[in-house]
Amino acid sequence: MTQPTLIRREGAHLRTALHLANRSVPVMPLRAGKVPFGNCPACRDNACGGRPNMKAPGPCTCPRPCHAWAAATTDPATLTGRPWATAWAQAAAVAYHPGGVGLTVVDLDHADAVAWARRKLPATRTVTTTRGEHWIYQGAMPSANAVRPGVDIKSTMSYARWLGPGTGTMTALPDTVRALIVKEPSPIRPAPRAVTVPVPVPVGGGECPHRMPAYLERGIAMAEQRITQATNGVHAAVYRVFLAVLSAHGRCGCLTETHMARLFAAAQAKGESLRHCTDAWANALTRLGL
């Protein structure tokens, strides 16, 4: 690709981003494949502790477009600054964080999914995509992939491509969309009993440092994010996250059933069954000797 072509593309994407940011829509560049730019070496695997606008607060002040959806910004100085210049030159599209502006995108990936939405969901603003449509509602909710065939929910802790303003009047987020992420229990057999997290007293009886709410909350939120961002090998990704959480917090009495339920919910939103979640948790406990 010639340099003038790069400059034209960079300028078009940046102009779109600034236009949206001026309307308080958090934006970010996407590279080829509709994926965000990876973390820089200093921020890889959230070693920096996370971005301030993530659910898990952290000290990171990296000026580059790191941390996927959490890098989305409305700050013109950030968008036009030198650290983002390379990203805009390589960008294939502009994305935005729907939850950051109080929106939910129902991503309909093919014609059958669009036909289902027209039968089941209230009409709202629609945007034509490469293979289907985005239906945009006013209101935010947790994001989830594959809530039904060809249907993803993109809202909080997620991003959607900007493909234009769309057509139609935006309506309030309906309960029928919120209900899509609720997993129904199997009608064939009862759900397995949840695994109880062991909570032994720390050696010496001292106060556990992990009981600091900010430390534990950051760890659980980062674990939820890693599950949510898994793009393949979800089974293995869920197990690795469970293992990491239990390795850090399983021996000191920090974890509660509420924390476990949050991790299970994130895994189920990626398509994992309750049985798979329970098995992964139990296997991680066994490996750690808990």
In words, what does this structure look like?
The structure is a single chain. With 290 residues, this protein is of the alpha+beta class. The protein is 37% helix and 14% strand. The protein is built from nine helices and ten strands. The chain has helices at 3-21, 76-80, 82-90, 111-120, 175-178, 213-228, 234-249, 257-269, 274-287; strands spanning 27-31, 35-36, 93-96, 103-108, 125-128, 133-138, 144-148, 151-154, 160-161, 171-172. Strands 4, 5, 6, 7, 8 and 10 form a six-stranded mixed beta sheet that branches. A four-stranded antiparallel beta sheet has the order 2-1-3-9. Strand 7 (144-148) and strand 8 (151-154) form a beta hairpin. The chain is globular and about 55 Å long. It starts with a helix and ends with a helix.
Number of strands: 10
Tally of alpha and pi helices:
9
Which word captures the global form?
Answer: globular
The end-to-end distance, rounded to whole angstroms, is 55 Å
Backbone CA Rg: 21 Å
Q: What would the average pLDDT be, to the nearest integer? A: 80
Provide the β-strand percentage band.
5-15%
The biggest sheet, with number of strands, parallel, antiparallel or mixed sense and barrel status, is:
6 strands, mixed
Low-confidence stretches: 1-7, 188-192, 194-207
What is the structural class?
A: alpha+beta
The amount of helix comes to: 25-40%
Order of helices and strands: HEEHHEEHEEEEEEHHHHH
